[in-house]
């Protein structure tokens, strides 16, 4: 993905499927899509753009498919209502007993002084996640050659602002340099490469990071393991290798596995629960699960609270790590009102689960959202608009923490 390269971008066209019917919330069509095009009973394959269709529960499906955009569309209109609350998001989150409310960011937008001024307000954002600059292609572009300038810039910003920092990420199938994907390494060599990479990157930021997304998106939507270079060579053991390396490098950092489409009960969420259980049984360090939260206005799952609780019941913490709630453009007052409700409901779900420690949006403004470039015709997914003006979604977040 361009800009904030959310890990969720793989949902567009690259997920292998082995079932004849797609699961709820899974992709079922779009340009370049080669997977299942029919949905399980009770869901409807709903078109959101030429590039993306999704299996939506029948009760949530729109009566007509939204039209795809043929050009750039405004993410808001001059008459769109704004937020009315003067509260600060991190302040209300901490008052509700949470550790933080945060935002992702990326290095290119740090030249935008107005943007940085809002991001740097620790009453608004108590935590920052680097969108790209700690990923493998950024930190170890050549084997054994590590670069940390991008990650260091964001780490310094967070430190200067008194904000927590989340590390994102150590091991992910995407944004890998070709020397990893095309190296044709045997199992012992690749395991050593993972250990070196994770221990070096995590060790570089030792003492600076609250939590790491050590492993990112290990599963397909149906709960099978994603067949990437790590799984194909090492099987499931690569997860243990990465977690143990991270733990050795920084024993105080919380170690997470991060994944999308965990917000409802599915084969993927069951697979994640079973993975956590197996890691715990083996004595492998695992502290939390991140639910990314890339959602669609009007179709936000109602089971988020129970899903969060299903993970905390295992004795670990959870966080919503990449929240955005997109809509078909142009934004209207009705869509913005629904988005406000959707944000409120997601925040309420976290607020109701004691060990849901915080919420991070995948950037805070539509100006730098990954959505429009990935889902043509969609956008307006974040609490601030492209002009850095707070939207009704901001009020929804405040209400969710009340």
Automatic annotation (TrEMBL):
Residues 20-56 form the CBM1 domain. SUPFAM superfamilies: (Trans)glycosidases, Cellulose-binding domain. Residues 83-400 form the GH10 domain. It catalyses: Endohydrolysis of (1->4)-beta-D-xylosidic linkages in xylans. GO terms for molecular function: cellulose binding; endo-1,4-beta-xylanase activity. Residues 1-20 form the signal peptide. Its EC number is 3.2.1.8. Residues 63-84 are annotated as: Disordered. Keywords: Carbohydrate metabolism, Glycosidase, Hydrolase, Polysaccharide degradation, Secreted, Signal, Xylan degradation. One of its GO terms (cellular component) is extracellular region. Belongs to the glycosyl hydrolase 10 (cellulase F) family. This is Beta-xylanase. It comes from Heterobasidion irregulare (strain TC 32-1).
């Amino acid at each position: 993905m361009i800009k904030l390269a959310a890990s969720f971008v793989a949902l567009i066209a690259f997920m292998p499927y082995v079932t004849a019917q797609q699961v709820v919330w899974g992709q079922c069509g779009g340009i370049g899509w080669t997977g299942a095009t029919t949905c399980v009973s009770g869901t409807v394959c709903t078109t959101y753009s030429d590039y993306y269709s999704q299996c939506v529960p029948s009760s949530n499906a729109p009566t007509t498919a939204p039209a795809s955009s043929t050009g750039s569309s405004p993410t808001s209109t001059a008459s769109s209502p704004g937020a009315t609350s003067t509260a600060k998001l991190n302040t209300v989150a901490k008052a509700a007993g949470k550790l933080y409310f945060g935002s992702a960011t990326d290095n290119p937008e740090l030249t935008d002084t107005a943007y940085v001024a809002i991001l740097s307000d620790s009453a608004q954002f108590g935590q920052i996640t680097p969108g790209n600059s700690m990923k493998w292609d950024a930190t170890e572009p050549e084997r054994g050659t590590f670069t940390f300038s991008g990650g260091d810039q964001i780490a310094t910003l967070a430190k200067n602002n008194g904000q927590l920092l989340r590390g994102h990420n150590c091991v992910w199938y995407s944004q890998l340099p070709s020397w990893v994907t095309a190296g044709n390494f045997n199992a012992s060599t690749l395991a050593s490469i993972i250990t070196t990479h994770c221990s070096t990157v995590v060790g570089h930021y030792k003492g600076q990071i609250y939590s790491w997304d050590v492993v990112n998106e290990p599963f397909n939507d149906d709960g099978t393991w994603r067949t990437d270079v790590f799984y194909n060579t090492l099987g499931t053991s690569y997860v243990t290798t990465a977690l143990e390396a991270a733990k050795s490098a920084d024993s105080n950092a919380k170690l997470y596995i991060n994944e999308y489409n965990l917000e409802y009960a599915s084969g993927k969420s069951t697979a994640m629960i079973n993975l956590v259980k197996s890691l715990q049984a083996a004595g492998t360090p695992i502290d939390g699960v991140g639910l990314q939260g890339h959602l669609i206005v009007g179709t936000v799952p109602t089971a988020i609270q129970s899903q969060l609780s299903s993970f905390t019941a295992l004795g670990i913490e959870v966080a919503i790590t990449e929240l955005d709630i997109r809509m078909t453009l142009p934004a209207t007052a009705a869509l913005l009102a629904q988005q406000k409700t959707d944000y409120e409901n997601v925040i309420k779900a976290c607020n109701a689960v004691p060990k849901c420690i915080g919420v991070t949006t995948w950037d805070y403004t539509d100006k730098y959202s990954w959505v429009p470039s990935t889902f043509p015709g969609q956008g307006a997914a974040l609490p601030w608009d492209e002009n850095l003006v707070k939207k009704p979604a901001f009020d929804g977040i405040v209400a969710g923490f009340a």
